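The methods section describes the discrete structure representation at length, but only in general terms. Since the whole study asks how a given chain folds, the encoding of that fold should be made plain. An entry of this sort, consisting of the sequence and the corresponding backbone structure tokens, reads as follows:

. . .
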Amino acid sequence: MEWIIVSTASLLAGFVDAIVGGGGLILLPALFATFASAAPATLLGTNKSASVWGTAMATWQYSRRVQVPWRTMLPAAAAGLVGSYAGAWVVTQVSPDFLRKLLPLVMLAVLVYTLAKKDLGMHHQPRWSGRAEALVACAIGLVIGFYDGFFGPGTGSFLVFAFVRLLGYDFLNASVSAKLLNLATNISALVLFAAKGHIWWHLTLPLAVANVLGSMLGTYMALRHGTGFVRTIFILVVGALILKTGYDAFLR
């Protein structure tokens, strides 16, 4: 029964994550509720060991249908990997607790801004090109990658919003690009968890298979229904993040 519960959660997480990120909202609480006595780091590592496969599948599927700006996003992914590793190292030295109360407020600002700008992310009109676009994308990757390694919740949503607001991408193209960076930051964190022995490898296979299946369905839905659909899911996920992080910060 435990395997069925967490595998179902992994499938739903892969679906949401493939569209706009935020799959951790589903799988992580399921893991913590099902294995309440396990070490948090082990559950975080097990989550990454499953989600990285769904993210890789989504990245591959999107790249076959949507033109990925590889010259911009590969350096940005490398910057994200470096930032994530640096953040993971810093969190071993400094507690991230001060971010718990700040995060829901930041997410609320993102939601209000997105709702106020009705046409935000509806049209793909890149603001930069060539080296300038790559530099801005690298800055995004480094900063949000560091946040992912240091704290983590909402990373995919922050990446999507940054690509829409700063690079001028529509929500579909922003989601595609965010997948590549998220894959890099996930791999960086996964290496660290594996080195520390914080992964339940016996759970990785069923969770990864379920996550990939969910990812394939989510990618299909995003490509079929386009930017408006991705924007709607983005708003729902950010709203859920506000409720979850707000509860953790102020009521728990």
Notes: The chain has nine helices and no strands. The radius of gyration is 17 Å. Residues 201-251 form the longest helix (51 residues).
